[in-house]
UniProtKB/TrEMBL annotation:
<protein>
    <submittedName>
        <fullName>FAD-dependent oxidoreductase</fullName>
    </submittedName>
</protein>
<dbReference type="InterPro" id="IPR036188">
    <property type="entry name" value="FAD/NAD-bd_sf"/>
</dbReference>
<dbReference type="Pfam" id="PF01266">
    <property type="entry name" value="DAO"/>
</dbReference>
<dbReference type="InterPro" id="IPR006076">
    <property type="entry name" value="FAD-dep_OxRdtase"/>
</dbReference>
<feature type="domain" description="FAD dependent oxidoreductase">
    <location>
        <begin position="15"/>
        <end position="360"/>
    </location>
</feature>
<keyword id="KW-0560">Oxidoreductase</keyword>
Length: 391
């Protein structure tokens, strides 16, 4: 790949500067390069995919409550299935499905409505009873379980392999991947960004795309664009290799507690969102967090509660007030575009968003109307779009 160690400074000019070298930034770079844009620079302060993209759970799904998220998820699932051919990489996609475990009648009614909406948009999700949920995932305890929602076309993949697949294809097309390069400021004149300043030089540019994840609010401030994104730590853990091996199970989520688990190599991956987690950029992994997970699964999947773990990690969610993404072009700084604030759904929506931002950059109608995801919705009085199926 053409990356910054080859060059002592960044290129002096670019048609498009993409800030952020995670899955979103590399997906955007790939789709722009594929469309014929040649002078693209991706600026990443560390290694590619080492921010939030390096530490997600890897879930890919179209099982959402918001029709826009369903559409973005469905389009991305198709791209993940085609990834070995375009852009050309094995991402270890495992289509095991998603299984949401529901413990109240209200949850069941809400998910039934969601399934009807998903089915109308071509997603083959369905409701199941407790016994069927246990058949799909033998770890499940049915006591207190009202129903479950199963989406068999969903699953999980390896985020690092996706980032590298996009990045290698982009580099082959001439994209400069300026790693270990920190953005220090933006120059603006009138309603446009004119240059991106980095610790390795200035880049005069025609378009800037913010794909900086949890750090996007800071980049927005440099351009005078409000991007209401806050960082929140999420933690996960891995079991030791299991003997006998774990059965092949869906990506299983206890919706009440947010505890989730799925296969990972020779064991299982565990996760849970701590509702008490404060905002901040701390990514220290704290093993005592595991007790929250263990307490939750003692009620729903008791065989997991005492499994030995072999470490874990912490990463950052980039959260917006309504848990939906910010995708669009600034109405004030017209050559400043953004794709951020995915609230845990960025990896799984990246292929579709890469196409959409490509089209926005080229000033053509995108494949999906993302107007309702404009950052302006939080200040203009437009209706927010709350997403219910947040993990």
């Amino acid at each position: 790949m053409t990356s910054s160690p080859v060059f002592p400074t960044v290129p002096r000019t670019a048609d498009v500067v993409i800030i952020g070298g995670g899955v979103m930034g590399t997906a955007i770079a790939f789709h722009l390069a594929e469309a014929g844009v040649r002078n693209i620079v991706v600026v990443e302060r560390g290694e590619l995919g080492r921010g939030s993209s390096g530490k997600p759970i890897g879930g890919v799904r179209a099982h959402f409550s918001d029709p826009l998220n369903i559409e973005l998820g469905s389009r991305s699932l198709r791209a993940f299935r085609d990834f070995p051919d375009r852009p050309g990489a094995d991402i270890r996609l495992d289509t095991v499905g998603y299984l949401f475990l529901l413990t109240t009648e209200r949850q069941a009614a809400d998910f039934e409505a969601g399934v009807r909406l998903q089915n109308s948009l071509g997603v083959p999700s369905r409701m199941t009873g407790p016994e069927e949920a246990r058949r799909l995932c033998p770890y499940v305890r049915t006591e207190g379980l009202v129903a479950a929602a199963h989406s068999p076309a969903d699953g999980h993949a390896r985020p690092g392999l996706v980032v590298q697949g996009y990045a290698r294809a982009a580099a082959r097309a001439g994209v400069v991947l300026a790693t270990h390069t920190t953005v220090t400021g933006l120059d603006t004149a009138g309603d446009r960004v004119t240059a991106v300043h980095t610790d390795r030089g200035r880049i005069d540019c025609a378009t800037v795309v913010c794909a900086a994840g949890a750090w996007s609010a800071r980049i927005g401030e440099m351009a005078g664009v409000a991007l209401p994104v806050r960082p929140v730590r999420r933690q996960l853990a891995f079991t030791v290799p299991l003997t006998p091996p774990a059965p092949r199970i869906p990506f299983t989520i206890d919706f009440t507690s947010s505890a989730y688990f799925h296969n990972s190599d020779d064991g299982l991956l565990f996760g849970l969102a701590d509702p008490r987690e404060p905002d901040g950029f701390d990514t220290t992994w704290t093993p005592d967090w595991l007790e929250l997970f263990r307490e939750a699964v003692r009620h729903r999947a008791p065989a997991l509660a005492d499994l030995e773990t072999a470490g874990g990690w912490a990463g950052l969610y980039e959260v917006t007030p309504d848990h939906n993404a910010l995708i669009g072009r600034s109405s004030e700084v017209v050559n400043f575009l953004y794709a951020t604030g995915f609230s845990g759904h960025g990896f799984l929506q990246a292929p579709a968003v890469g196409e959409i931002v490509r089209d926005l950059c080229l000033e053509r109608a995108p494949c999906v109307d993302v107007g309702p995801l404009s950052a302006d919705r939080f200040r203009s009085g437009a209706g927010v779009r709350p997403e219910s199926y947040v993990v």
